[in-house]
């Protein structure tokens, strides 16, 4: 399918699709006339990319793990492993933010809150 149809089916702009192609997230074969031709399963992959971003994965993480997920005999298991690892990162970040919040809260009302 051409980039316009892919944009319509995926709900993404042509510019976004070109960016994803440049970043190595999707690949379109070039036709003789220079137009990109994308496989129909690209739409499903783009849904995965968007959901992964919504769950906090960076484009580089998605690109890094994309090939292994697509090639896996059990992609659900691979995705579960990635989600478990991401959950640990999120939990760690939450702990850091809670510690920061406590530190800030302890300084409220001090004569000079910026002193140790």
Largest sheet: 2 strands, antiparallel
Number of helical runs? 5
Q: Name the beta content range.
A: under 5%
Can you write the helix and strand succession as a string? HHEEHHH
Structural class: mainly alpha
Class of the largest domain in CATH? Answer: Mainly Alpha
Taking the alpha carbons of the first and last residues, their distance comes to: 62 Å
Q: Which CATH architecture of the largest domain?
A: Orthogonal Bundle
CATH topology group of the largest domain: Multidrug-efflux Transporter Regulator, Chain: A, Domain 2
Radius of gyration: 21 Å
How would you state the average pLDDT, rounded?
Answer: 92
Overall helicity: 55-70%
Number of separate domains: 2
Query: Low-confidence spans: pLDDT under 50, at least 5 residues?
Result: none
Query: What oligomeric state do these chains adopt?
Result: single chain
Spatial order of the strands forming the largest sheet: 1-2
